[in-house]
Design the sequence.
């Protein structure tokens, strides 16, 4: 573990440079440049607020606020978007960077770190705008807001563990990537993001406990919309899965690193 951390630290310049280059390449040759990182999420928040809260008059059970559904939706969509970004990019990271992996001196674990840092930068920008929206609309939850930090750690741990595990398998079985794309589509609708878990029948609520992202997304929504601390005891599954998948993923990676080079 110490050797791994030393290798990552030695390549910190490469990691930060890769994150910077990717950020810049997204907006190269565009007139507004990096301003799109603000405009895109801002447009999303405006659409959610105007269409869902004002036009459709969407309401949540027991909540009387014109912005309630917008906050509920953003508090679910933004963490979900980060989860999908980390898993999807980690899933293809080894294949997309085959030329780097074949270099013996390159610490391959830099790739998952780059994926996570990139996702955190994108999330920080979007979530920062969401925070401004909460402040301007008078719905900032107060000190409870900082509960989002440990929730974000759990989300990142689960996402990168799942991503690395699937990423290694995807090198040997390319159907894994295609199949998981389909799984994500179903997973989104099986997670209470666009709807409230309170409207579901009891037997469906019981089944939601088997969905680790359901409890995590609900915790974000409880913090941002209701201004309450999440029920940490409900997050044991995602914590266990996050640690377990990280151990499995890194173990598979170390065991099959040599074979991966031959497959790429």
Sequence:
């Amino acid at each position: 573990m110490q050797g791994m951390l030393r290798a990552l630290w030695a390549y910190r310049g490469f990691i930060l440079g890769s994150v910077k280059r990717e950020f810049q390449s997204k907006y190269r040759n565009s007139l507004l440049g990096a301003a799109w990182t603000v405009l895109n999420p801002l447009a999303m928040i405006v659409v959610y607020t105007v269409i869902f809260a004002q036009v459709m008059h969407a309401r949540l059970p027991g909540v009387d606020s014109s912005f309630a559904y917008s906050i509920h939706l953003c508090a679910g969509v933004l963490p979900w978007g980060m989860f999908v970004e980390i898993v999807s990019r980690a899933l293809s990271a080894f294949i997309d960077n085959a030329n780097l992996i074949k270099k013996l001196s390159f610490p391959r674990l830099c790739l998952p770190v780059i994926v996570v840092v990139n996702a955190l930068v994108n999330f920080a920008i979007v979530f920062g705008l969401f925070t401004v929206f909460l402040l301007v609309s008078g719905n900032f939850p107060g000190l409870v807001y900082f509960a989002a930090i440990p929730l974000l750690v759990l989300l990142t741990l689960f996402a990168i563990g799942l991503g690395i595990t699937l990423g290694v398998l995807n090198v040997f079985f390319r159907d894994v990537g295609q199949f998981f794309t389909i799984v994500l589509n179903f997973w989104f609708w099986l997670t209470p993001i666009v709807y409230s878990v309170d409207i579901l029948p009891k037997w469906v609520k019981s089944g939601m406990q088997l969905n680790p992202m359901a409890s995590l997304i609900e915790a974000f929504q409880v913090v941002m919309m209701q201004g309450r601390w999440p029920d940490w005891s409900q997050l044991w599954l995602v914590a266990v899965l996050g640690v377990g998948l990280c151990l499995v993923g890194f173990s598979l990676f170390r065991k099959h690193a040599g074979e991966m080079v031959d497959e790429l």
Remarks:
- The chain has a mean pLDDT of 82.
- The longest helix spans residues 68-96.
